[in-house]
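Retro notes, item 3 of 5
We never archived the inputs for the magnesium ion complex last cycle. Fixing that now. Sequence and ligand:
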Amino acid sequence: KASVMDGDKFDNDLPTESPETSKAKSELEKLQEDRKTLPIYPYRDDLLKAVEDFQVLVIVGETGSGKTTQIPQYLHEAGYTKHGKVGCTQPRRVAAMSVAARVSQEMGVKLGHEVGYSIRFEDCTSEKTVLKYMTDGMLLRELLGEPDLASYSVIMVDEAHERTVSTDILFGLVKDIARFRKDIKLLISSATLDAEKFSDFFDSAPIFKIPGRRYPVEIHYTKAPEADYLDAAIVTVLQIHVSQSPGDILVFLTGQEEIETAEEILKHRIKGFGTKIAELIICPIYANLPTELQAKIFEPTPEAARKVVLATNIAETSLTIDGIKYVIDPGFCKMKSYNPRTGMESLLVTPISKASANQRAGRSGRTGPGKCFRLYTAYNYYTELDDNTPPEIQRTNLASVVLSLKSLGIHDLINFDFMDPPPAEALLKALELLFALSALNKLGELTKVGRRMAEFPLDPMLSKMIVASDKYKCSDEVISISAMLSVGNSIFYRPKDKQVHADNARMNFHTGNVGDHIALMKVYNSWRETNYSTQWCYENYIQVRSMKRARDVRDQLEGLLERVEIELTSNLNDLEAIKKAITSGFFPHSARLQKNGSYRTVKHPQTVYIHPSSGLAQVLPRWVVYHELVLTTKEYMRQVTELKPDWLVEIAPHYYQMKDVEDPGSKKMPKGQGRAAE
Ligand code: ADP
Ligand code: MG
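Structure as it came back at the time:
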């Protein structure tokens, strides 16, 4: 909790209260007092004055100063919500949800009423909502329906330093809106001090600095590089726990899987200590963590215990966790990179930047002096880490962004007002792909297909697959597949002691080597037939939570079908039709089997493999279409379906010619495996 000592500095104007009355204080009053202890509080009136005086304001302040939770409330209290909503964007889903939950508590209202959040496939807002937290991507989507953001009086682009693609695009769009809507206010808030760049971009908007309270942080480096940073992190946690004074620990890891592994190992090792050591409460936090479990990281640590938070980058600036005194920083994060030449996108574990390392260290010095243990050498830090992470727009596939911009009527992408422009090659590649998918015509204008695609909050290839399902009369199956794919790779689970059972259960859905897409559809349909039974999920080693999410996504997609006037039709017995619909979206992702069991992608030849988790991993069909590539030990295709090469020419004649799909000397080769046609 915010320390009382610091709070005293600002509480002088409050009447002193006797212990009896404070005991009787309601939870809400307590929260109201906590608000007053935040670093931003003394600047409340100055800040409101600045918002009144200037249309655009850049706000900088340390993580935890109260920007995200307080500013929208201040604006509400000052009356800005009388004539419109205050929208506050977050780069991360979890942050949007958690912050909205906190603010609704502080305001004593039910989440989803006055305070709500909106993230992809989940809208927790209502007519009443005046403070709306949302992902930056959601605000972009809202712009498609409301290009002038008429229902908003203030837009706060929060965590601006994160520089996600959506945030970068929003910069350009809201800047333009502010020019013709003089009544809208724009706040650009950021945790780091390179605010000049934001100010420059927004025509020299003034910068409002919230002086931080930052205590000294002792930095410790390892003497030699660590061979296994995960193990080193776990050892460090235990060392701190047994040897250092009270205070919680925050460990930065790269993703869900790593966090789960760390949690398991830690639990195991702690067991070994028996009752010899104090309780260690382990709290994981990552993007897909179920909401119920997220709250755990914010609960105060009991007196005799210590908390260790295992977090992804999300704890770098997006979420503020109180009570952290020790930070363990292995120096890595998962980062997207994109090769515009091949169009391949990959998510790789990469060294962080110096800026990130310093943000991470800072998490330990918020409420008192802290310590940061860097699991790399000082030499490594000074000579090998980049100063800053390049903005995402320079290392990502832009197809989805380009489609959104085109549907907003922005044609001249080269001259779009980018803070940092994307590589021309990446823009071109996106245009090419959208043209191949028939979303754009030769002039680069949005087609009817493209307009329909843009309605779906999905990757353009998935949207195209759905739009194409109309033709093949299988929209029911295809939206189920899309929903299952959107949930990610958390459908099946494989408990360590029951792997054989789990694998058998999974392979049931693959009977007939139907391919991974159809298998996902079968899982969904079987679950639906049991009337969404939880028991059925247990019996089949399927994660109930993922299935429920898939159902929510599917419901939304069904609603969107109506909007683009696609009838919901089922064509369950014609697997070829379903596969053709899949191919209509994913034909750029086709690959052909090589003699040695590897595959070669057709358009931009590259060697790839079927992921071992695929139902086709042992089957090795001659031609496949895949959902995505993941790079682990090899470049793997994940979610694979067999196709017939003729389909490529039939479905995308502008993209594939016969010569692309003919085998040299094909006459002698056995004719396909033909399964796709069965
Ligand atoms: P900033 O945006 O400047 O980093 P925040 O407004 O997110 O700061 O956080 C300010 C304070 O609000 C935190 O120090 C913490 O005490 C509290 N807080 C924020 N989110 C939560 C939450 N979900 N649960 C409990 N406390 C929270
Ligand atoms: Mg914040």
